[in-house]
């Protein structure tokens, strides 16, 4: 029969000795760094950027001045020559096409009556501007945006944080509308697009694209069909239409 003294001695023998064998047969390294349980949780992949169509009308109103007149409204403080203007187009230009004069910083949209609507634009910095003849194969309202891998590699401080994409909206770098420029079936990643930085119009500011005031490209958007040609002239070339 066990007495109280025997129970205490037996309990001490059972529970007071340190564990000498590794738990579940795994060796324990006393110098190993402790494991953070959070590190064992697999991170969910980032969601793709979104642009809800239900918000487009509200965003349009937000970037369009009250009592907007494309020929006179200028809350952005643009030089007057960069406001939309109807000009006479050079002969033999195809209606519906776009021509970008890189010297004067103008974009011309050719109209069926022999005139063109001229807008002020900004073009790319330095060698990032790529003159050429392109096809507009896609256009989008309030597009989402992701910097290209080349942009991230060239300037990680500016672009690395956007590697997972940016939702559509008034602060998105592509602004209110975008035309996507292709060569054949190849996306060049060049765009003609709105910009949340309208004061850049008239300068060289982008990473390859042609920028427009957001209210201006909203007005242009429905006039340009997919399949239209966009010609970006070299900075050494002359103008493509005369006022």
**What fold name goes in the CATH topology slot?**
L,D-transpeptidase catalytic domain-like
Structural class: alpha+beta
Say how many strands there are: 12
Strand content: 25-35%
Count of discrete domains? 1
Rg: 31 Å
> Helix amount, in percent?
10-25%
Tally of alpha and pi helices = 5
CATH C-level label: Mainly Beta
Q: Helices and strands, in N-to-C order? A: HHEEEEEEHHEEEEHEE
C-alpha end-to-end distance:
116 Å
Task: Explain the overall architecture.
With 243 residues, this protein is an alpha+beta fold. The protein has one domain (53-242): L,D-transpeptidase catalytic domain-like (Beta Barrel). The protein is 16% helix and 26% strand. It contains five helices and twelve strands. It has helices at 4-15, 56-63, 149-154, 156-159, 214-221; strands at 85-89, 98-101, 106-110, 115-120, 123-124, 132-141, 177-183, 186-195, 204-206, 210-213, 229-232, 241-242. The strands form two sheets. A ten-stranded mixed β-sheet has the order 10-8-7-6-11-2-3-4-1-12, covered by helices on one side. A two-stranded parallel sheet has the order 5-9. A hairpin with a 2-residue loop joins strand 7 and strand 8. The longest helix is centred in the first third of the chain and has 12 residues, at 4-15. The protein is globular and about 75 Å long. It starts with a helix and ends with a strand. Residues 6-26 and 237-243 have low confidence and may be disordered.
Output the keywords:
243 residues; alpha+beta; L,D-transpeptidase catalytic domain-like; ten-stranded mixed sheet; two-stranded parallel sheet; 5 helices; 12 strands; globular
